[in-house]
Design goal:
This protein is an alpha+beta fold. It contains 5 helices and 3 strands, in the order H-E-H-E-E-H-H-H.
């Protein structure tokens, strides 16, 4: 089962909700980041969600393995974390920047779901 599908289930997203996860090269992620945020740097994840009229959620999560590798943990674990993170963004969760990021509800859910996946 895909990481996004598990998160959708754990979050009780409406049936038929779907999130695609795509891996991008560093160059492609820089371009995507510039288009999405106006920032020129490399980022590890970008997520887009599109609520449907019937309540379903459709989304796309873009992950850059080269950027994920810089985060200081095992690459497989970090890719899973980013898939969970992006899926939660698609579902409407957000977090503050800076120190409060890791104390946010979204971050707590992300780490709880990641622990389930890593068992």
């Amino acid at each position: 089962m895909r990481v996004a599908d598990l998160v959708l289930g754990w979050e009780r997203a409406p049936a038929g909700s779907h999130v695609d996860i795509t891996l991008l090269s560093a160059a492609a992620m820089r371009r995507a980041n510039r288009r999405a945020t106006g920032r020129r740097g490399l980022t590890d994840v970008i997520a887009y969600g599109l609520p449907q009229p019937d309540g379903r959620m459709m989304g796309d999560v873009y992950i850059c393995p080269a950027a994920a590798a810089r985060n200081g943990v095992g690459l497989t674990e970090e890719l899973m974390r980013l898939a969970v993170h992006g899926t939660l963004h698609v579902l409407g969760y957000d977090h503050p920047e800076g120190a409060g990021r890791t104390r946010s509800r979204m971050w707590q859910l992300q780490e709880r779901y990641l622990k389930r996946l890593l068992r």
